[in-house]
Specification:
heterodimer, A: alpha+beta, Uridine Diphospho-n-acetylenolpyruvylglucosamine Reductase, domain 3, Enolase-like, domain 1, 3 domains, 38% helix, B: alpha+beta, Ubiquitin-like (UB roll), DNA polymerase, domain 1, 2 domains, five-stranded mixed beta sheet
């Protein structure tokens, strides 16, 4: 590891001051499960590491139909929180798929989102659920829609002087949801992951549908054409399979040493069908 | 900078650089070789230690971040100068070959069983999926952990 200065500010304002002072030469340390491997491999040479673990950003709150999660909520907190399980169970499920148990002990929601790996589960969940990302800087606060937050491979709308402080997830009452993924080994990033949210009306027809993928492009993304194809329909096995196929056709995955584009597209179709099916079964359970 | 931590129940003050990991501090500054260096990216589990009772990769923890925390290495499992019952189960079931993965397996399994005392073999398997054994002794490791879980469960 290249040497760097280290600061552990006690307040958000102190942290923001350090980001103003050092700009792009500062790296924010939360759980460290993405940053420290990068430092170990000398792929990053920050002048200063700003450790935010002393900041009061680990709260989980439910209010006004929203689940508000602090940036320092760790993956195991998401997995174990009764509030998250009750109001947004797919986040519980997604958190359980992140890395291995050691990553989930330390890794944080804010860190995963700010790192923006294109195959990561939590960014996928935030895009699918229509979450909003709260950021602060010495200039003030702003809120960014999740789908606009991820701007490219490992890239986000965060400016160098900004700190991701919280995430707001709308609670979807009466909807069922599920995430499915295939990874080469347990604990790896997904080759492809699919997340579905389905709400049914009183007659059992699809009222709302969300379908999003990770691992098939530089950022997680919804496939609106497939969602629209489901709305107003009976959620039959054929309809769900049709929507999944439509979604896979609309994707443009790339080949890499781990999987070909064709295999990724096949995975997308199969995983979308499975995620939609489980989401519908769960939605029926809450009707 | 000086970092104060509680290592295997004993308070320690260690002089560290911010750019050192806990793994480096344990091995190079304290001469404690319980945690092994495998991949240096948190994938293999050989460097597992418990931080306040939860398994973490010591290769991914910057030394200053362990200030005022409790760190347990495999040496911390010692019971009255002897082996911990899970270690004895490992010996009994032939779950140790080269030994490189063993400290991580033991600590991960114990942290898991503390939270899930009645765990099934399938659950134990999932709990250990982030700890790699390149001697491919997984079946015997699972035998040992499962036997220990059963004995503990019946108060044996």
């Amino acid at each position: 590891m290249h040497p760097f200065e280290y600061a552990a500010p006690a307040t958000v304002d102190d942290a923001l001051g350090l980001l103003v002072e050092h700009g792009a030469e500062a790296k924010v340390l939360a759980g460290g499960q993405s940053l420290v491997p990068i430092l170990n491999y000398r792929l990053a040479k920050p002048r200063i590491v700003v450790d935010i673990n002393d900041l009061p950003l680990a709260a989980i709150r439910v209010e006004d139909g929203r689940l508000t999660l602090g940036a320092l909520v760790r993956h195991h907190h998401l997995e174990e929180s009764a509030d998250v399980a009750r109001h947004c169970p797919v986040l519980t499920e997604a958190a359980g798929l992140v890395g291995n148990v050691r990553v989930r002990s330390l890794g944080t929601l804010g860190g995963s989102v700010a790192h923006a790996d294109p195959a990561a589960e939590l960014p996928l969940a935030l895009v699918a659920l229509g979450a909003r990302i709260g950021v602060r800087s010495a200039r003030g606060r702003r809120t960014i829609e999740a789908r606009g937050f991820f701007t490219g491979f490992l890239s986000t709308a965060l400016a160098p002087d900004e700190l991701l402080t919280e995430v707001e997830v709308p609670v979807m009452r009466g909807a069922g949801s599920a995430i499915e993924e295939v990874a080469r080994r347990a604990g790896d990033f997904a080759l492809v992951a699919a997340l579905a949210v389905v709400g049914l009306d009183r007659r059992g027809r699809v009222e709302t549908a969300r379908l999003a993928f990770a691992g098939v492009g530089p950022t997680p993304a919804r496939v609106v054409a497939a969602e629209e194809a489901l709305v107003g329909q009976e959620p039959s096995a054929d309809r769900l399979a049709h929507a999944a196929a439509l979604a896979a056709e609309g994707l443009d995955p790339q080949s890499d040493p781990f999987a070909s584009a064709a295999y990724r597209r096949l995975l997308a179709r199969v995983l979308a069908r499975r995620a939609l099916t489980r989401a519908v079964v769960r939605a029926m359970g809450v009707l | 900078m000086i970092v104060s931590l509680v290592l295997n129940g004993r308070p320690r003050d260690v002089d560290v650089l911010p750019s050192e990991t806990l793994l480096t501090v344990l091995r190079d500054r304290l001469g404690i070789f319980d945690a092994k260096e495998g991949c240096d990216e948190g994938v293999c589990g050989a460097c597992t230690v418990l931080l306040d009772g939860r398994p973490v990769s010591s290769c991914l923890l910057l030394a200053p971040a362990v200030r005022e925390r409790r760190v347990t290495t495999v040496r911390g499992l010692e019971r009255g100068g002897g082996l911990h019952p899970l270690q004895e189960a490992f010996v009994r079931h032939g779950a140790v070959q080269c030994g490189f993965c063993t400290p991580g397996m033991l600590l991960t399994a114990l942290a898991f069983l503390e939270r899930h005392p009645g765990a099934t073999r399938a659950q134990i398997r999932t709990a250990l999926e982030g700890n790699l054994c390149r001697c491919t002794g997984y079946a015997k490791i699972l035998d040992a952990v499962e036997a220990y879980a059963r004995e503990e469960g019946t108060g044996g």
